[in-house]
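step=predict obj=Fe2OG dioxygenase domain-containing protein n=345
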Amino acid sequence: MMIDSNPPLLHHYQALLRKSDKLHQHANNNNNDRTFEIHIDPIVDECELPLIDLSGLESCNATERVACTAAICKAASEWGFFQVVNHGINTELLGNMKEEQIKLFKVPFEEKVTSGILHNPYRWGNPTATRSNQFSWSEAFHIPLTRIADAASWGEFTALREAINEFAPAMLKVSRLLASILAENLGYPNDAIEKLCDASTSFMRLNHYPSCPKSKDEIFGLIPHTDSDFLTILYQDQVGGLLLMKDSKWVAVKPNPDALIVNIGDLFQAWSNDVYKSVEHKVVANEKMDRYSIAYFLCPSHSTIINGYMKPSLYRKFTFGEYRHQIQEDVKKIGHKIGLPRFLL
């Protein structure tokens, strides 16, 4: 008997689909309300994100250093997403991370759910989904970086722990570098981000998107959302599937094997008074191939107060903990995140 490592995504999705159909039918019988209709926007175009060579920051030429900094700030403002090359993380380490990540996801599903590895950070689908268009065809391990040192919680995955122990500090270094440049551009001290965000407050998410028998226009790999942190750095394979909202339409991001993807989070948008953009993005499921990615989330402590750098501020003051709590409440009540609009003045 073959032991399946993938979660029962199709079973859960079909149950939600039946529920959605019933709700849709009921809504149509009452005032022709289309609230429950399932609709995933088609891909309009494929784009290449702004590509920034970080070696320019170390150039002996002052003009090149300034141009590199300006390119980072422009991309954060106009796109909210960009790619970086020559980021200092070697390809051997990236390849090792992917290899160990795949081994983790190949563990039988029941073992992932019940083993307690890393104090139960395993998630799949969307436990709060009430309709099929709130469901994500994926599984993930959410790993607070404070747990890397806890050797006992890694079980048989000591090689993964060793890889993350090298990978996480490298990602922290890149994320702090970029966030510090963006903060300085707003007038903050160059150590502002370093004081707010470190390894004890940030986390990683290992993502796996199993191949999906449904059409990519029918189901999400990851539902549309914005990130709730300051900055996210993504290492992905070459399967593709990441889409972002640009000029009011979805565009597909063309994978670049040499680049890391960087995107602005909600906290940076609020902190910058909307100078930088936290852009909605999603992942579409692939019918033939599994997709893997690793996201590093640069976060502050839950007590950190977020307040716009300009006056008048567009948002009221809030703590990161308050923001996270509001998101969780929204997801429980309505099935999705509302985010920053909740905090507009």
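step=describe
The radius of gyration is 20 Å.
step=end
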